[in-house]
């Protein structure tokens, strides 16, 4: 792996990357209310790889969306890298996410008309890295996930595992300190899924980034430092324990 070759940001003294206090989420529809999350309290150390597991409908995607600043909770507060994001303005939050969070989606979310390299370049451009520097960094990011020879290929010509690697390379753009992944192995076979999780594991351990992965897959628990288990919108004792 070439992840260690990416340029590093100065290390901060913050030891806790993600903290949630009393987080709740209620969805309203007409006169009805649905409690998706209730009294979520968690603390994830910097540099850890953390799994968020639980049955379908337990609130995992809602929780990771809140932790990533994509949704605002109806109760509680979130701190990321020592900053309370729940008190930020929309503009401040957008800027914070842009520079500190990389998100990996279950469905890849690649632009079909752009090559693998161009998909990564778009993310770099949004973060103010363009021109020759952006092109060079895109190639370096693709090399970091083992796709140095796939930069000119369109997503339709890539396998599912390769598409997810492009998505990870895109998430790495700008060297964010937080990587969040929502079911990154769900659409992949066992071998491809294990390779994707290993890339994320290497990122956490070699880059000092913090990785939070939503997953149903018990086969990947041993790459985690710890596991959160969510059921009916509340954190419960985990059903699985890392042994590696």
TrEMBL record:
GO terms for cellular component: membrane protein complex; plasma membrane. CDD domains: ABC_MJ0796_LolCDE_FtsE. Keywords: ATP-binding, Nucleotide-binding, Transport. It comes from the Bacteria. It holds the Pfam family ABC_tran. One of its GO terms (molecular function) is transmembrane transporter activity. Residues 20-243 form the ABC transporter domain. This is ABC transporter ATP-binding protein. It comes from Gomphosphaeria aponina SAG 52.96 = DSM 107014.
